[in-house]
Specification:
Layout (H helix, E strand, L loop, with lengths): L4 E3 L5 H7 L4 E4 L2 E8 L11 H18 L7 E9 L1 H9 L3 H4 L6 E7 L7 E8 L7
Parallel strand pairs: 4-5
Antiparallel strand pairs: 1-2, 2-3, 3-6, 4-6
Length: about 130
């Protein structure tokens, strides 16, 4: 097996190495991005839900940018929400600021009971630009 083609956003490699996973991997023309949460630089959760959601998107966008992509290249999205019945509206109102214009990517939403102290997580698959396909 060839080594994984890992993408690291600027300034957060130590955080990923400490937690023993890759933020994103290029493979067969796609970028597979690990779930991103609203973590601060030190990895701790942003306590305000709306700010945490925005920070998760910002962290996601940093990875996409490091791979030469934007959210417009995203084809599939999975979101995880702790207690979605009470938090969905706050989280969902942030999406238009990051989501872009239609047509939108596919979306799967999953309600969960625990996200390591976070309330929202987003993971995506993006199509790499032709020159970056691996």
């Amino acid at each position: 097996m060839s080594p994984r083609d890992v993408v690291f956003p600027p300034g957060r490699q130590a955080l990923y190495e400490r937690n023993r996973y890759s933020p994103a991997v290029r493979s067969n023309g796609f970028l597979f991005v690990s779930g991103q949460v609203g973590s601060r630089e030190d990895g701790s959760p942003e306590p305000d839900l709306e700010a945490q959601t925005r920070l998760a998107f910002d962290n996601l966008n940093a990875i996409l940018q490091a791979a030469g992509c934007t959210f417009d290249d995203v084809v599939d999205v999975t979101v995880f929400i702790v207690d979605p019945a009470s938090k969905f509206e706050t989280i969902w109102k942030v999406f238009p600021d990051y989501w872009g214009q239609a047509p939108h990517p596919t979306l799967t939403g999953v309600g969960v009971t625990w996200l390591y102290g976070f309330d929202f997580e987003i993971k995506v698959i993006a199509k790499l630009p032709e020159s970056d396909e691996g």
